[in-house]
Structures are given as C-alpha cells and as structure tokens.
Amino acid sequence: MQPAPSPIAATVDFAAPGVGHGFLRLPHSRDDAAWGSIMTPITVVNNGEGPTALLTGANHGDEYEGPIALFDLAATVRAEDVTGRLIIVPAMNYPAFAAATRTSPIDRGNLNRSFPGRPDGTVTQKIADYFQRVLLPMADVVLDFHSGGKTLDFLPYCAAHILPDKRQQAAAFDLVRAFGAPWSVRMLEIDAVGMYDTAAEEMGKVFVTTELGGGGTASARTAGIAKRGLRNLLVAAGVMRGEVAAQPTRWLDMPDADCFTFAEDGGLIEFLADLGDAVEKGQPVARIFPVTRTGLAPVTVPAGRAGLMMARHFPGIVKPGDCVAVIGVEVDE
Amino acid sequence: MQPAPSPIAATVDFAAPGVGHGFLRLPHSRDDAAWGSIMTPITVVNNGEGPTALLTGANHGDEYEGPIALFDLAATVRAEDVTGRLIIVPAMNYPAFAAATRTSPIDRGNLNRSFPGRPDGTVTQKIADYFQRVLLPMADVVLDFHSGGKTLDFLPYCAAHILPDKRQQAAAFDLVRAFGAPWSVRMLEIDAVGMYDTAAEEMGKVFVTTELGGGGTASARTAGIAKRGLRNLLVAAGVMRGEVAAQPTRWLDMPDADCFTFAEDGGLIEFLADLGDAVEKGQPVARIFPVTRTGLAPVTVPAGRAGLMMARHFPGIVKPGDCVAVIGVEVDE
Amino acid sequence: MQPAPSPIAATVDFAAPGVGHGFLRLPHSRDDAAWGSIMTPITVVNNGEGPTALLTGANHGDEYEGPIALFDLAATVRAEDVTGRLIIVPAMNYPAFAAATRTSPIDRGNLNRSFPGRPDGTVTQKIADYFQRVLLPMADVVLDFHSGGKTLDFLPYCAAHILPDKRQQAAAFDLVRAFGAPWSVRMLEIDAVGMYDTAAEEMGKVFVTTELGGGGTASARTAGIAKRGLRNLLVAAGVMRGEVAAQPTRWLDMPDADCFTFAEDGGLIEFLADLGDAVEKGQPVARIFPVTRTGLAPVTVPAGRAGLMMARHFPGIVKPGDCVAVIGVEVDE
Amino acid sequence: MQPAPSPIAATVDFAAPGVGHGFLRLPHSRDDAAWGSIMTPITVVNNGEGPTALLTGANHGDEYEGPIALFDLAATVRAEDVTGRLIIVPAMNYPAFAAATRTSPIDRGNLNRSFPGRPDGTVTQKIADYFQRVLLPMADVVLDFHSGGKTLDFLPYCAAHILPDKRQQAAAFDLVRAFGAPWSVRMLEIDAVGMYDTAAEEMGKVFVTTELGGGGTASARTAGIAKRGLRNLLVAAGVMRGEVAAQPTRWLDMPDADCFTFAEDGGLIEFLADLGDAVEKGQPVARIFPVTRTGLAPVTVPAGRAGLMMARHFPGIVKPGDCVAVIGVEVDE
Amino acid sequence: MQPAPSPIAATVDFAAPGVGHGFLRLPHSRDDAAWGSIMTPITVVNNGEGPTALLTGANHGDEYEGPIALFDLAATVRAEDVTGRLIIVPAMNYPAFAAATRTSPIDRGNLNRSFPGRPDGTVTQKIADYFQRVLLPMADVVLDFHSGGKTLDFLPYCAAHILPDKRQQAAAFDLVRAFGAPWSVRMLEIDAVGMYDTAAEEMGKVFVTTELGGGGTASARTAGIAKRGLRNLLVAAGVMRGEVAAQPTRWLDMPDADCFTFAEDGGLIEFLADLGDAVEKGQPVARIFPVTRTGLAPVTVPAGRAGLMMARHFPGIVKPGDCVAVIGVEVDE
Amino acid sequence: MQPAPSPIAATVDFAAPGVGHGFLRLPHSRDDAAWGSIMTPITVVNNGEGPTALLTGANHGDEYEGPIALFDLAATVRAEDVTGRLIIVPAMNYPAFAAATRTSPIDRGNLNRSFPGRPDGTVTQKIADYFQRVLLPMADVVLDFHSGGKTLDFLPYCAAHILPDKRQQAAAFDLVRAFGAPWSVRMLEIDAVGMYDTAAEEMGKVFVTTELGGGGTASARTAGIAKRGLRNLLVAAGVMRGEVAAQPTRWLDMPDADCFTFAEDGGLIEFLADLGDAVEKGQPVARIFPVTRTGLAPVTVPAGRAGLMMARHFPGIVKPGDCVAVIGVEVDE
Predict the structure, then answer these.
(1) How far is CA D57 from CA A301, D160, E269, in A?
(2) Within an 8 Å CB–CB cutoff, is residue C2 touching chain F?
(3) For residues C22 and C28, what is the distance between their CA atoms, to the nearest angstrom?
C-alpha cells in the first residue's frame, strides 16, 4: 500500500530565491487545541547553483550549541553569501526543544531512534517521516548538531561514521576536518537502528554530526566552536562563500564496548577524573556513595580500558544502569 | 506561649565518645505512610576537648560538592583525628536532596529562607527549627556548603559575611583563608531574612559558606576543592589534627546591586563571556534568541558593571526575570 | 489472520423488543483496578419493523449538546414511539466524556481519528473497532453529534458530506434538512483518514453529523436545537412516529483551504468579528497581543477569504499553530 | 514589629513624565530558577496635573476582556491624552494569567481573597501586599476588570458597591454610569474579607469593577464593551481628555442569598433558560442528568426567586456544590 | 479580635424533629469551579429528650469501617429509635474520602492534626474549625471511627484515653466496653497536639475512637464489628433504644515508646509474625530485602518489647522511617 | 524479515557453574538518563545435570509473595543444593516493581498481556521478547508467582491450566500438588492472548502459577506458603535436593463466566461475605453505598452462582465495571 502523504505542510518555498523564514506546520489535535498544530521554525536560503545543505539542531531537545549556531545563522545569513541552498531547522524535535527535554513531551519519542518514521504514527514519528521523505532527499550534505544534553557531558568534537562506501566516508571526514572542533571522532555505530544518521547515510548523503558539550547548557566557548565550525563546514562543502578558518584538532577512536562504563549502583557520584584526563585500565574514574546512611564506604567504578575520558555522566546523582564514563583512544589522523 | 519541643528525634548520642552514625527522625504522616518519617543521616564524632564544628551540605538539594565531602568525611574520619566534636549532616534538606531538587518536594520549601522555622510548621520549617534550637546552639564553628545547583554556575569560592562584630568577622575570614578555594568572597548580604547564615551569625557562631560550582553536577576538580578545603578549615578551627595545606586564593567583592543582571526576555541564551572572563560595563555578556520563529535578531544583555563574571545562568533556555550573570570585582585581600 | 473478536461485551440485547438500558463493558486492567472495566452506557429500543438508527454523542469528550439530547431521549423514549430500532450511545468515548476532555485520558486517543480500530490496540482503538465491526453494520442511519468542545466555537449547524454515491449523499442531506439546525453545511472532507464518518459512509450508511456550539458548554438554545433536530431526523428517517417540525435553515459551503486561518504567534487574542459576521478577504478578524511586555503592537490576523465567520478559536489565549477562524460561504440550497 | 518592605521592585518610574513600560519584578527562587523572578508587565503614564487611575485585569487569570482593553490601552495611549496619571497592570496575578487559570499555579492563591497580603508570605500574598502598600495608596480611582472565567458566564455589567460613605459610593456609581456597559449592578458584598475591592474602598478610593462575559474567552462584542467602557470611565474620572460616549444601560440588584442557586448533584447539565431570560420563582432553570447509566430521570434545579438570569455555570458538567445560576432583579436607576 | 464566623453552612436543621439529610456546604473557589463548594453529607436525627451523639468516619479518607457503619445507620435509622439526637457525618474529611487518600487532596491536610482549625485557613482547617466551634459544642458523646488506612493494619479495637478527669475517663471506657470490639485499648497519647480527640476531651465530651482493620479495605467481619459496636455504644450512651448485645473483648495497653518499631532501611518487607502473634523482646518481626540486587542478605527488624503484634506496616515495600510494627501488652480489664 | 536481536544483555553467565548474581541490562534512553538502562536483578545457579527451572515474581509489580520467596532463595541457595539449573528473576517487570504498581510506569504496560513482545517495541514489550526468545527456551519448568496486587485479594492457591496436551497438563498438576498451597486450582483460561502462561505452554514447558493473597501486602503466613511451596516444587521437579514437605490442599474449579461478578455502580463497598465463605446463587455478597448523599439505600450485588468466595475486590471504594467477587466450586482432586 502506498504510504499516506506527510501531514506536515511547509509555509516556506524550498525553491524560491533569497532568504525565506517560515514553519513546518504539523496538525495536532489535542485537549487544549482541537485544531492545533506544531509549528517548527525553518529558514530556506537559495542562491544560484550549488549543493543543498540540511542543517539541524535539537534532534534531542536539551542540547543547545546547535540551536544557537543555527538561529544565529538564520538571523544573519545573506542570500549573496550562499552558493546553492541552505535548509536550516534549528530545533528538529521542536516539542522537545520547547519543553527543554531530550524526548518529546507529547509521546516521549526519542527522534533519533524514530527513523524512518510514519505519516500516521506519533508526532515524533511524523517528524521523522517528513525528514525521511521530504527534506533528506533534497540534501547533499547533512549536519546534525548534538551535545550531551542534561545528563551527559562531552569533550567538544565533530564526527562522522566509518562507512562501507569509502568515497562517501572520505567526503564526510573532509567536512569533519574543516569543521575544526578541538576533537574529531571516527565513530563505528554499533546499534544504528532508527537513527537520523543512518537514514541520511543510506540515501548516500554526506553526513556529519557533533557532540559539543553537555549538561543542558552552552558556554561562550562551546557556542563559539559550533558557530565557527558551521561556517567552516559550509564553506568546505561549497555552499557558502569564504575561507575555511583552519583550527587544530585531535583525533579519537572508540574501538569497542569497553569504552563504556555503566553503574550497577545508584547514589551520589564523585568523579576521580575529569573530561580530557588520561586514565589507565582499571583505574577508578568515579566512586558512588550510598545516601540513605552515613558511614558506608562508596562503590568504586573502574575504567574499562586505558585512554582519555571523553564523556561522562553529568547529574550529581547516578542511577543503576547509567553510563558513568566513556574512554576514548587518541590516534593520529 | 512556650514553643513546642521539636518533633525531630536523633538516634545518635551527641555526647558519646567516638564515631556515631544515625538519623534525625522526623515523623511525617502522609498518604503513602500513615506513620512514616523523614530520616536524615547524621554522623557525630567526639574526642577529647575542643570546639564543635557543625558541617552541612545540601541546604539546597541539587548542590553536590558539599555532600561528597561530607559523606566522604563521615565514612573515613577516625575519632583520634578529632579534637572536640564534629556534627556532620551531609544532606540538610534531605527530602530535597533525595529528589535532586533545590526545594523540598513535600512543601516546596527553600530551607535557606525558612529560618528560624517552626516546630508545628511545614516539614522544611521543622528542619530549620531543629537546627535553630538544637544543633546551632551546640556549635562553635559552622560550615555550610553551597554550589550553584541545576540553574546557576559559580567560580569556586569560599566566603563569609561582613558583620557588625569585627572579631566574629575576622574569625570567619581566617577560616575562609584556610579553606583555600581558588576564589574567596566578602559578602554583604542585602536580604538576609530567613537564612541559615543569619541564624548562625546572630547566635555569635563563626559561619563560613561556599559556592563551589553548579549545574547540578560536581567535577573531580570541584569535589577536590571541597574535600581539601573542609580538612583545612577543620584543622584551622582546631577540631582536627594536622596541617593546613595552604592554597593560593584570589579575592572578590560584590559591591552593590549592579553586580546582578536579570533577563527581561525569555529564549535561547548564548553567552558571550564565560566564568572568570573580565568584562567592561555595558559589554554584552549574553544574547537571547526568540525561539518561536527563525530570522529574528537576539536581544543583547549588557554587563551592569566592569569586573569578572563570577556566576552565570546555567540552563540553555532563560526565562524572563532569571539572573543571567553576576559580575564581581577582584580586590586585594 | 482472522482478527480477534472484540473484547467488548454488551449487557443489553440488541434484538429484544422494548426499551433496554445497559452497558458496553470493556475489560481494562490497570493499576487501580486489576480486573476493572470501562462501562459505556447504552440504550436499545426495538419496536416493530423499520430501519435502525445509531445515535452517538461525545465522540469527543468535551462536547455537550449531543449527550444532552441522547441522555434525554434514552430517559423518555417509549417503545411505541419507535418504528424499527434505536441504538443510543450518548457518550461514545466514555473515558474522555468522564474526564471532560477531547481525547481519552487513558491513551490520549482522538476517537474520530482511530477508525477502523483494533481489538488488541489501545482502549480508544478497541472502542473504534467495536463500532466498526459490531454497531455500524447494524445501522441504516447514523447520527453523530459534535460541537466545538472547549477550544472551538461554531455557528450551530447540521452537516453531511459530498459523496461519490449521489443517492447516499441525497439521503443524508434529506436528513440534514429535516434536522433543521439554524445552519446546514455541505462538507468536502480533505483528510478523512481514521474518521467515524468515513467508516460509516464506506459501509454505505446514511451519515449525518453536527457542530452545535462549543466552548465546552451547552446553552438552553443549543441544547434545544439538538433535541428538536434529533427528533425531526428520526421522524424523517422513519424510525420514530410523528411529524417533522420544520425549521428554517441557511446553507454554508467550505470551498477550500482558504477557509481556515491559523495563528503563527501566541498570545492574548482579541477578536474583531464574531460568529455569523460577514468579513471581506484580508479584513482583520483578530489581533494577538504579546503578553510578556506592555507597549507592544499586536499582530493582525486577516481573513483568508470573504464570507461568514462560522467557527472560531475559543480560549482567550492562542498558541502558534491554532486555528483562529473558519470563514464559510453562504449559498442557496 | 514593622512589616518588612515589599520584595517587589518596579523597573518603571511612577513619577516620570510620559509613557513608561516596565515590570514589577518579584524574586522567586525555585527549582527551575534559583535566582528567578516573576515579571509582571506594567505601564505608567504621567502628564500634567490630575488624578491617578489604577487599572487592573486578570485579578483572576482566566478572565480576558480586561487584559485586552489594558494591553491595548498601554500599546496605544499617548501622554498628551492623559491629565494626571495612569497605572496599567493588565495581568495583576501574572502567574495565573500566564497559566490561564483562575488561581496561581505556584501557590493556588486566589488573589482576590488574599488582601491585605504579606511581604513574607506566598507569591500571591506578596502581590497583594504590593498593591495594598504601594499601588493603592497612589490611586484616586481604581478599575478592576473581571469576567466569569472558565467556569462562569455573566451578562456584561459594570458595578460598584453599596458603601457606608455615600459620597464615595456616589462617585463610584457616576463612573459605572459613564462606563456604559449593557448592564449595571449595585452590589452588596456579603463576604468581603480579603477582596481587593474592600482593600481599595477602606482606603477611601473610588472603586469600580466589572463582569463582562466568561467561559475563558472574549468575543469581539465583550472586548468592545471593555475598551469603550474603559475610555469612558477615564474621561469621566478626569484622567483622559475626550468625551464620554454615552451608552444605554439597564440596572440590576442582587437583593439577597436567594439569588444564588447551588447544585446538590453532579452530572451533565442542561440549561432551560439562558442569560438574560426572565424566570419565575421555582421555575426549573436547569436539569442535571446522571451520566453513569442511561434511562435515569434528571434532577431539576429551580430558581430561588423571580428575576433575570444574570450569571450561570459554564462547563457542560456540573459538580455538587457548584453555583448553577444567579437570578438578579431589574430595577430603575 | 473576634474570629470570623465559619464559612460552612449546613442545609439541615439541627433542631428539627425527625430524620434530616443534607450537607455541610463549604464555598471553595478553584480553577474548575469559581463559585464551587465542598458538600459534606450529614444526617441529623432528633427525637425527644436525651443526649447528643456526634458520629464521624473518614477523619482520614482511606479508612472504611466507619463510613460503612455510618452511611448504613443514616440510611436505616428511624426517628422513633432515637432518644435525643444523632449527628452523623460518615466522611468527616470529605475531599480526602472522595479521593481515597489519608490526607486532603486540596491542601494535603491531615484533619486529625488540624484542630482547632481556622475559619480563614486551608480547607482542612476550615473543616476542623467547624467541628471545633459548631458541632463539638452540641455533643455529649463523640465516636470517631478510625482504621489503619492504606498503609497500616490493626487488630480491631475500640479505645479511649487515660484522662486527668477520671469521671470523664470512666464514662468513655464504659462505652468502649459496650462497643464490644474483639480488642479494647487504653491509650496514653504522647503527642496529642492538633487531634480531634484532644479537642473533644478538652471540652469535657465523652470521646471514644476505634482502629478496626486497615489496608484501605473493609471485610465483612470488620464492617460487622463497626455496625454492631456503633449500635451498642449508642444504646449504652442512652441515645438509642434497645439492648447492648454484649461481646467478649480483650484489653491491651501501649505502655511506652518501645511499642513502636521503625525501619531504618527501605526495601521488600517479609513479616515473620502476623497480627495477634505473641513476640519476645528482640525477636525478629520482619526482614527487609534490598531490591536493587539479588544475593544480598536482608536486614532484620527486632521487636522493641515482648507482647502481641497489634499493628503492622501494610504495603509490601517499606521506606526508611516507616513504622514496621506496634507491640502491645495484654492486660486484665 | 529477521527480527532484531534483543537489546537486553545479561551480566551473568547462564552456563557457569555455581551461583551467579547479576542483571539483565536494557538500555533505556530517557530525559533523566540519555544513556540509562533498566537493571533487572537475576540469579543463575548451575550444578551438575538436571532440568532448568525459570522462577519469576512481580510479573505485576504490586504482588509480593513471589519476590519475597525468590529474593530469599537467591540470597540463600547453595550450588550443591541444586541438580540442574535455576534462573531466578524475582521482579520480572522491574520498573513496575520499583514503582509498586501493577503496570509499568514507563509505558503502562501489563507484562502479562504483552507476549510475545517485540525487540523494538515499548520497554514492557522488550522484556516480554527477552523472556520469549531467550529465557523460556532455556527452561523445562516455569513457576510464575502471582498474588492479587493492590486491588484484589485471593484465597492462597497454586494453579495450572487445562491443556490440550494431557501429559504436559499432568506434569504441571504434579507440581501444583507438590507446591502444597492451602488451595489448588484448575484454570480454563478464556482469554489467554498475550499471557506469559500461554507463551510458556505453547513451547511445551511445564508451567505453574499462583495467587497467594493480595491487597499489595504479604503476611508472614502467605510469605511462608510461597517459600515452602517454592522449595517443594523445585524438589518435585528434580532441580533441588531434598524431600517434598507434604501439605494438605483443597481443590477449586472455576467452571464458567458466572464465577465473576462485576459492579455496575460505584461507591463505598460493604462485603457481606469474606474469602472462603460459602454462598448461594443470588445471595448478596456485597452492597454498594452511593457516597454523595446520606439517606440513600445501597445497591446489592448478588452471587452469580453457588460456591466459595475465592477472590474479592480489595479497595474500600468500588468503581463501575470492577470485579467484585469470584465464586469458585470446591471439587475432589
């Protein structure tokens, strides 16, 4: 059976020259608005010939470097700076972004596990479906900004995936290098089911992503990395005029599952190493204190391998099953 | 009328020699426990003659450096290290700490605005009353750990108040200096009504406090500052044996209300300066993007005075009325 | 695979002569009732030969004219007034009706977008499935009462759809005319997927619906329209004895998508025209004031076409994406 | 003991000439903003000599005619139109207005039962205290807009109270007459404890109020009554230049407690009379259907006295104890 | 200052002969009913000369034996059976009873800790005030039914307090004996502040109470004890005609605080003794399993004294601070 | 399409000799833990040759006899007592167990209606899928403990199903007999869709279940039945060394749908018979009092057949559609 058309309608013209601001309007009948809609802001810029870049933030709603760089770009871009087309969606999972939560407050959907989506599914699935069937097919280059959100913190990095198609892979890593984050990562996705990344890559798009900090905040430093990297990437991709402002970067690999350490106990977490610190295999990276009594010894959490601490649990309280730390391995590019 | 006795009963003996672990038990009849209680962990250490130090964390429930230092101290302290008495309450507003929220989930009480409390009031007022009438009178020295919590971030500092009694003030600043945080602050409290600080100081106690980070997390670095500062302060106060491990510190003043900048608009906040950065009066410290549309210019938030950014709003989204930044002035000690 | 039988069991006998009151019992295991059920009231009246009319209200749970007319009919109807069969379900989405919400509090299901339903799906899908496979097949004529609910307000009208089968369409409009609401509407449904209307019409049933007011209330006037119209329709359909009490009506068309105006901004809404007012294309029908500051100019919302304002947003606050107004075109019958 | 000063600070200058827009900033420390504030928009207009009018809406947060008229006035008023001073607070209980609820979402406070308030009380009490001790003393004339909110509907009227001081009373009724609502009411408040009305009148202010509709909406008609009446009243009070645009009005009395009819049963309510209809004593004004079964007779609700239905319950479902209707008596002025 | 009159109005006449059913109407303005009320059902029976008995259930809203006995009495009592006056309020904290919770869903008030109440306080305080100032003064004998509620379970007993006035005490124990529950208890209240018991006894009333089971249910057996005991007590008190149906009872004392055992640990609770079992001092009465891991030994909870287990924690999960068991001592009467 | 592998990973080795404690780790990305997991405790015991018994509790999260027996077994079992393999999962629906609710707080899933589950479905479906595809295939014998939970109460019984395969059926009833609960039941499941029972039986496993009490509690007596029965069953199944401690049991049948009585009315329920009481067909087993007024007669609920009351509604308040009582028929074994 032919899938139904997407219920989402754009109020911008994807083909019109110049800068257009508008919405992706998704009808959403609910108790507080029988004939309500979800209005996701979008900017489209067309100028001359050139590739199309699809730029997104807030795939998870509590990650802020991407939205800052993209709301800023949308507010300042001039058509004459562009050579091709920009499609800017600063807050991809808009209901989650508006609620400042990772997942959608409407259906608790994790947008980055909802692809390819469904036109007749939940709100999050409808958004995924629109990207899958309408926006991704228009794009040549896709940049999806992530950060750690409220519960994780990362060394700021730009990344792409190891892919079967080595030309596609090389094109992506060229853009990672141009982005110029302090760190760059080669990712081998273990469980790629339902990801936006996978959806884009399976269509042959050049896909680049980031993790630029976390904790549900953005600093001047991390926002600066996002803005500078965005402009560099667009220039390198041939969609914006200008020069790439080269930045030094260090490369990290995440070779296997030993990179990830999980807590088996809940409690108050004291880290013994910070982001960027080198650790040995088995070295304690954190201790977890039980909090219902005083006088009890904490449980120690050892590193699963030697390397650099590249991500960590953020909240002061940890729950059984939470990822405590990720240890990466620094490599030559 | 004579006030009623506190409903809180301690299961530890404040006079017994050695290390005792127990609870402050506060009966709390509620829907899910008709004869339930709130059990706040407490450790008391008595050894020989000497002053009494009352040590508290989680006055606000989402601040973690203090609880880490105090759960650690309670689990490792040996009676023979003490010369006098330690009263350790790692999580002063225990219901808030258990819920990982600033205020109590039971009555939304802000413990640090609830003094002197009431024995027949809300749960938070009953806790305040117990400190006011039972624990503070036992103490000579009081150390109350704070951090920024989930919504603020601070340069790590130890602080005391400008007081009418200059001997009391000097004793407090001696301990601030011994604590040895990277920053030390002289505070002139504008609105001190209901604070634990004020309750302690009005009884003539030597009162020291901290702000050691924020965002609802603790790093290895900030937890280390708390643990080292705690031990230094106890040694300097004559309650623990050992040597003060001297640390360099820089001093800040908060001269007047111009230090505080408030947002009049809500939206996505992009900081233009980070903690510790020097700013000029009127220099933009942040920009706030409206998020319901793309293409709109952000509102700029200027510094109210020249100085160093010593605290900032943490979440990526700001609401009208939120404090955006605090600018302090570095001074000689 | 053969679909499972419906889990719903009726406690009334659809074939028994006379007036029977009972329930549609739907087992619903939940935290507050391991072996609980949803009990939807139903009345069945059988007398002699004649068609079967299936009469429903509260398809959306916050619409009241239909339930008033149907609870009243069920309480007063005498078997001897009937010639055929009445199946009366005054509150079709009973959980929503009991909660006074548009959608089901159990699964947030919008019953009128849940057809054909599933016997093993959500509660709302199980209700849809029972109507789809049990009740609709019994019916010749279907009347489904709607009103605007808490968030919309309508000129009171009775309506039927433009259909491919012109005989079926004519039969429906005969009943619309007999109903005799102040307004009558010819509807061309754009997105009919999942609707009860579509389910009935695809089975060849004569289907009539209404919009009789809104705001989550019913006035004496609109309840009177529902009660009088119900009786007229049943007489005209040959299911009740009596005479049609002819009422004048005016006809409206909704020719295209320009009838619908959506808000792009949220705020305090001031209407500049009321239900029934004539407006010109482009004429402002409402203004939206931002509410976070005073002194700002409101945004104007223009009519998308000339015509009569036949529906409007109801709450005093409007959100981006809400339908502000519907403009219909008065036509000769 | 001297009461503490109000924690609220105004960002507008009440004495500055011209039109000033700003906020009443009330610090409000909470889980999602440790140093947050409630920002209530305010406009002050000063021009030459003349009385001060204090104008308020959204004393209850779900009443909209007042906010529409006052946001509109604040956005359009020119200093040269004023002779004296206007203090405009379109949303007096701003947290309730922002939540679209009658009472405050923070403390469930009903602002109009919270006077004289407390500077150290709940948020709602702090707002009341600021009006009591800061704003009311500045005023000569006070206009407080009300409507029925989401759960009541009223014939649109302007009103003042029967007062012991007949000069004060006459001044108020002069303004009621000038306002020119379709209906005007002489109110004898039975339980005036905690009301803003009482606070103003006890200070000798000329106090006028309204009920201009209800249901949690505003129509073009009722918003027009508010805007026209506001301008008329300000002209009549000598605070604005211009002419009173005279409007006919009819007068109602509410002589005693028999005016109010309460439901003893819950269920689906069918009104038998609408606003403005004349009823006899004992005449049924509504019927209440039980909704857990079909086939049961409704309970009848009789009028407690003869007169005009001037207010009614709004939602389609009524609960035991709800006021069903208010019957007023039309009188000569 | 003279306290304000109670806002509660009774719709029954306390002096009228015969059986009267009605309500205590407490106005309660709230978001879902601007002019709503709380309607507490009440029955008054007057016949001839004799004492007044005030009979109450659901002082805590999740206790059912009392409401069963009192709704039953109100529905079946004939005036001619009475010699004096009965005032029957089957659900004293009606909002809590309607929500099936111990405390009020409106203000979380524990009615039995809210005396003497306030006419201008919370809803629960207003109810307490009405009993304090209106109903208790009318009464000679007061019977207040309790059970364990959802979180406790009790051996079924009737009880009165050890009082300074030995005549008052004796009169109460005469009624306890007449009630004839399987167990009878002499209570020495340790913390009587705010209790209804204390309010009644301080006015010199003869006050009797019960604990008749628990778990938030009532069995045929415990409901039978309540109904039989109620009738016996009323006959013994001279308010109803008839004979006391004598029942055997056993007497328990609760000599001191060692009767109560509290949990210091949370987890899955396994009882090792049941209600009515004899235990020795130090004998384990329960074990608490941690539930986050398998393989850990449970914590043992010892009896604080020798005696009979007369009450226990009910839910399968226990929290730190919950009362696990109460051990009473059987005594001769 | 090949189904995806389960996302659940076990941290125990199912083949390792001896006693192993660990977790089933199910990744669960959510707002409070971006990289969080659900950690279900599990114990595996391997020793020598013999069958595998899969032992589960808390299939519904508010049933406690099973978890007590299984946490106890996991904490005390020695490898040398086992002849074969034990797989012990004391809390099968761990999120529900942790929340003390029947269904999962994450997705409201009823685990016992979620089989065969889905690896890419809801959390509850993922758990079902893991049992379906990983654990059940390893097992020879399956014991799934149930009790009534918070809303039902049962005579304590062990049970198995009437099955088409009479050898499989006989093996199950042998274990029921060995279990030795006070009651034993032969169940003919009417609606077996989605049940764990069905999943196990369709794979040819020997499946035994229980209902051992209810009300959301466990008594010493019912916990003792569970522990003794568990050991007996494991011995009889040849998985543990030892002797079956024979217990007398009485047998019940549930012949048809007349065993189940449902309420059509809500209110306060008074039972007229208790668990274990014999009733005649049509005999009132309960009465339901309306609670909005006093003075109304209760509705009577008759037994649908003669027999023994073997289960009943537990809470003091009943809702329309709740099962009030189950009447079983005692039979010879």
Answers:
(1) 58, 16, 55
(2) no
(3) 18
| A196 close to A133: Cβ distance less than 8 angstroms | no
From E105, E85, E102, E104, select the one nearest E42 (Cα to Cα). Answer: E85
Q: What percent of chain E has pLDDT over 90?
A: 94
Q: End-to-end distance of chain A based on CA atoms, in angstroms?
A: 47
- The radius of gyration of chain B's CA atoms, rounded to the nearest angstrom, is 21
Write the pLDDT tens digit of every residue in D17-54: 999 999 999 999 999 999 999 999 999 999 999 999 99
- Strand F37-47 to F84-89 pairing: antiparallel
pLDDT value, residue E280: 97
Best D217, D272, D283, D299 residue to mutate vs chain C (most C CBs within 10 Å): D217
E13 vs E9: CA distance, rounded Å: 11
Q: Does D75 touch chain C (CB under 8 A)?
A: yes
Residues of chain D neighbouring C218 (CB-CB closer than 8 A): 269-271, 316
Distance in angstroms (rounded) separating the CA atoms of residues E66 and E60: 10
CB-CB contact of E268 with E317 (8 Å)? yes
Domains and CATH numbers, chain A: 9-252 (3.40.630.10), 254-331 (2.40.50.100)
3-state secondary structure of A169: helix
Counting beta carbons within 10 angstroms of the beta carbon of residue A54, is it exposed (0 to 12), middle (13 to 18) or buried (19 or more)? buried
Q: Tell me the pLDDT band of E190, cut-offs 50, 70 and 90.
A: low
Between the alpha carbon of residue C88 and those of residues C40, C47, C135, the distances in Å are: 11, 14, 11
- Alpha-carbon distance of F203 to F52, in angstroms, equals 14
E147 contacts E102 by C-beta, under 8 angstroms: no
| Minimal Cβ distance to E321: which of B4, B36, B120 | B36
Residues in chain F: 333
Question: Which band of pLDDT confidence, cut at 50, 70 and 90, is reported for residue E303?
Answer: very high
**Residue C113: is its pLDDT beyond 80?**
yes
CA distances in angstroms from A3 to A78, A118, A138, F183, F323, listed in the order given: 38, 8, 19, 55, 43
Residues in chain D within 8 Å Cβ distance of B150: 31-32, 34
Residue C114: per-residue pLDDT: 97
Three-state SS at C173: helix
Residue C288's pLDDT band (boundaries 50, 70, 90)?
very high
Q: Is F270 on the interface with E (CB under 8 A)?
A: yes
* Chain B contact probe: residue of D1, D29, D31, D127 with most B CBs at under 10 A: D31
For B37, the closest chain E residue by CA position comes to E321
Task: Using a CB–CB cutoff of 8 Å, tell me whether F264 touches chain D.
Answer: yes
Whether the complex's predicted ipTM surpasses the cut of 0.85 = yes
Scanning the structure block, which residue is given the tokens 């050892």? Answer: A302
Collapsed DSSP state (helix, strand, coil) of residue F137: helix
Determine the Cα–Cα distance for residues D60 and D214; give it in Å rounded to an integer.
12
The strand pair at E317-318 and F183-187 is best described as unpaired
Nearest to D333 by CA among D207, D224, D144, D180: D180
Helices and strands (DSSP H and E) totals, chain B:
7, 19
- Contact list in D for residue F266 (CB cut-off 8 A) is 292
Pairwise CB contact (< 8 Å): F319 & C33:
yes
| Nearest-by-CA chain B residue for A71 | B294
Q: Chain E partners of F67 at a C-beta cutoff of 8 Å?
A: 268, 289, 291, 316
Distant-in-sequence, close-in-space partners of B314: CB < 8 Å, separation ≥ 6 = A215, A216, A217, B148, B150, B151, B152, B153, B214, B215, B216
> For residue C268, which residues of chain D lie inside 8 Å, CB to CB?
64, 67-68, 71
Query: What's the pLDDT at F246?
Result: 85
What pairing do the DSSP bridges indicate for beta strands C18-27 and B299-302? unpaired
Chain B contacts in chain C segment 190-219 (CB below 8 A): none
- Mean pLDDT across E53-76: 98
